[in-house]
Design goal:
With about 475 residues, this protein is α/β, with parallel strands linked by helices. About 45% of the residues lie in helices and about 15% in strands. The chain has three domains: about 260 residues, Rossmann fold (3-Layer(aba) Sandwich), CATH 3.40.50.620; about 140 residues, Up-down Bundle (Four Helix Bundle (Hemerythrin (Met), subunit A)), CATH 1.20.120.640; about 50 residues. A hairpin with a 4-residue loop joins β1 and β2. It binds one RNA strand of 74 nucleotides through α1, α5, α7, α10 and α12.
RNA sequence: GGCGCGGUAGCAGAGUGGUUAUGCAGCGGACUGCAACUCCGUUUACGCCGGUUCGAUUCCGACCCGCGCCUCCA
C-alpha cells in the first residue's frame, strides 16, 4: 500500500517515499512552554500522532522528533510576571504538556530535543551561514540576509518583492537590518535575560534557528516530513528552509514533504488570545474524556479548518458511546497480526493523506457489523474494531471504564456503590411487579446523570 | 496590493461525471412491563449564473458570500 501525502511546497498530493529505505524521519514543531497548551496546539499533536502510528505500521523505523521551545521572550515575560525562575516555569509547563497530551492518547515522540540543550548546534549553524555569506553581524545581532537566498519564498509561494510591497508598514524596521525582510538568528541578552556565550557576545537564539539546527543535529541534513500548523508556513518554515539549505551551501534538500494542518476556530471565530476565546486542553479535560477531544479533532480532515463548538464535543461523545457500546463484553487487547477487509479499508483511507473522517466511518461500519452478529464471529469483529481504533489512537480502554467515566470538574453524581444498590432495589421491585417504584428509581438515576439499560444478562448503567 | 482556502441536508463532515458516505439530531416500526441499548425503514443536500456533456453537486468560466496569511501564533 502506498502512502500519499499533500506536500505544501508542491501544493499537491504526492506518493510518499522516504529518502532512506525502511526508515522515516519526521519533525513536528512543538510547544513554547510558557503556559498550558490550548486546543489549537493540540490539533497538530494529535494529527501527527495519527501519522506517526500509520508510518510505524509501514516502516520498521520511524524517527519522530518534536521539540520543546524553552527559550523565548514569552517565557521570559511569563516568568517575570509570576516571580518564577525561567527554568522552573518552562519545566512546569513541559510536564503539564506531557500530561495533557498523554490524556489525548498521543504517543511520546522518539526524540524531544529542548532548545536550551542545543544552543551549540545553533551557533554552529549560524557560523556556517556567516561563512557562506548568508548572514551578517550587526550591533550584537546576527541576521539572515534573505536576498542571498534565491529560493526564498518557495514554500509559502510568495515573492520577496510582493511581501515587502504589501506589508512594509508591518515589517519590523531596525537600524541593524540591511534589508527589512532579514530575520534574526541571534540577539544579545541583557544580564537579567537568559544568555549563552557566543562569537558575537552573550545572547540568545532567534526563534527559527532552533528547528533547523536540531533537525540537522538529531535527525539528518535531509528529512522526510516536517509538520506544523498552517500559521507556521510563513515565516517560520520558510526561514527554516533558508537556514537548513543555505548552511550546506544550498545543495541539499532540507525537507521532502511539508505538511500543515488547518486552523482551529472557536464557534466560527478565529481563536485568539486577545479575544479570549480559547480553551486550554487542561480545562477541557475537566469536562470531557481526553478521547472525546481526540475524536473531535479527527472528525475533520487535517488540512481543513475545524470549528470547535460544544456540539462538536457532545457529538464526539455520542459517537464514541456507540463504538464502545459495540465493544462491551469483547476482547480488550489489540492483536497486531490481525487482518480483515475493514482494516484494509481503514488503512487505505489513512494512507490517502490521512483521511481521518473516512477512517472514522469505518469504525462505525464495524460497530454496525458487530451489533448484527452473535457468538464467536461477534468476538472476532470486536477484535477487529479494537485494532481499527488503535490505528487512530482510539478505543484503548475497556467499555466499562468508558461508560463509568466522570468529569473531574464535577463529583456530584452518585458513587458506583450507590448506583449498584439502587439497581438491586429496582430489580427487586421489578420482580414484585412494582413498576412504579422501578421507574422512579430509574428516573432518579437519570436525573443524576446515570442511564440504566436492561438486558437479558441484567441491568447495565452508564454515566451521560 | 500579493498569496491561499472554503460555501454539501437541522448540525458536523466525506465523496463522486449517472448508483447509500458516516455520525449526531428528527420521524415510523421491531424489541421492552414502560424505557434505554440495538436493529429495520425513512425525511431534509450539494452558493448563484452560464458553458461542455446524453447526463454536472462533481469538469471549465464568470459572479456572490465567508475566511486566513503577508515577520508573535499550532
Amino acid at each position: 500500500m502506498t502512502i500519499q501525502l499533500y506536500n505544501t511546497i508542491n501544493q499537491r498530493k504526492e506518493v510518499f517515499t522516504p529518502v532512506r529505505q525502511d526508515e522515516v524521519s519526521m519533525y513536528v514543531c512543538g510547544p513554547t512552554v510558557y503556559n498550558y497548551v490550548h486546543i489549537g496546539n493540540a490539533r497538530p499533536v494529535v494529527i501527527f500522532d495519527t501519522l506517526y502510528r500509520l508510518l510505524q505500521r509501514h516502516y520498521p523505523l520511524v524517527k519522530y522528533a518534536r521539540n520543546i521551545t524553552d527559550v523565548d521572550d514569552k517565557i521570559n515575560a511569563a516568568a517575570k510576571a509570576n516571580g518564577e525562575s525561567i527554568r522552573d516555569l518552562s519545566q512546569r509547563f513541559t510536564t503539564a504538556f506531557h500530561e495533557d497530551m498523554a490524556q489525548l492518547n498521543t504517543l511520546p515522540p522518539t526524540l524531544e530535543p529542548r532548545a536550551t540543550d542545543n544552543i551549540d548546534a545553533m551557533i554552529e549553524q549560524i557560523q556556517a551561514l556567516i561563512e557562506r555569506g548568508h548572514a551578517y553581524v550587526a550591533e550584537g545581532h546576527v541576521l539572515f540576509q534573505v536576498s542571498t537566498d534565491p529560493e526564498y519564498g518557495k514554500l509559502s509561494h510568495r515573492k520577496l518583492d510582493d511581501m515587502i510591497a504589501g506589508a512594509s508598514e508591518r515589517v519590523e524596521e531596525a537600524s541593524y537590518k540591511r534589508e527589512p525582510a532579514d530575520f534574526v538568528l541571534w540577539k544579545p541578552s541583557t544580564d537579567d535575560l537568559p544568555g549563552w556565550d557566543s562569537p558575537w557576545g552573550r545572547g540568545r537564539p532567534g526563534w527559527h534557528i532552533e528547528c533547523s539546527a536540531m533537525i540537522n543535529r538529531h535527525l539528518a541534513p535531509t528529512i522526510d516530513i516536517h509538520g506544523g500548523g498552517q500559521d507556521l508556513i510563513f515565516p517560520h518554515h520558510e526561514n527554516e528552509i533558508a537556514q537548513g539549505t543555505c548552511c550546506h551551501g544550498g545543495h541539499e534538500q532540507f525537507v521532502r514533504y511539508w505538511m500543515h494542518n488547518g486552523y482551529l476556530n472557536i464557534d466560527g471565530q478565529k481563536m485568539s488570545k486577545s479575544l479570549g476565546n480559547f480553551f486550554t486542553v487542561r480545562e477541557l479535560l475537566e469536562q470531557w474524556p481526553g478521547e472525546v477531544i481526540r475524536y473531535a479533532l479527527l472528525t475533520a480532515h487535517y488540512r481543513k479548518p475545524l470549528d470547535w463548538t460544544g456540539d462538536l464535543l457532545a457529538s464526539a461523545k455520542a459517537s464514541l458511546d456507540r463504538l464502545y457500546g459495540a465493544l462491551r463484553d469483547g476482547p480488550t487487547e489489540v492483536d497486531p497480526s490481525l487482518t480483515h477487509p475493514r482494516l484494509e479499508e481503514l488503512e487505505a483511507h489513512l494512507a490517502d493523506d490521512l483521511a481521518t473522517p473516512q477512517a472514522l466511518s469505518v469504525l462505525h461500519a464495524l460497530a454496525g457489523d458487530i451489533n448484527k452478529t452473535e457468538g464467536e464471529p461477534r468476538l472476532a469483529l470486536q477484535q477487529v474494531l479494537r485494532n481499527a481504533g488503535n490505528a487512530l489512537g482510539l478505543l484503548l480502554q475497556t467499555a466499562d471504564h468508558w461508560f463509568k467515566w466522570q468529569p473531574a470538574g464535577t463529583q456530584s453524581g452518585p458513587s458506583a456503590e450507590e448506583v449498584e444498590a439502587l439497581i438491586a432495589e429496582r430489580a427487586a421491585a421489578k420482580q414484585a411487579r412494582d413498576f412504579a417504584r422501578a421507574d422512579a428509581i430509574r428516573a432518579q438515576l437519570k436525573n443524576q446523570g446515570v442511564t440504566l439499560q436492561d438486558s437479558r444478562e441484567g441491568t447495565r448503567w452508564t454515566r451521560d
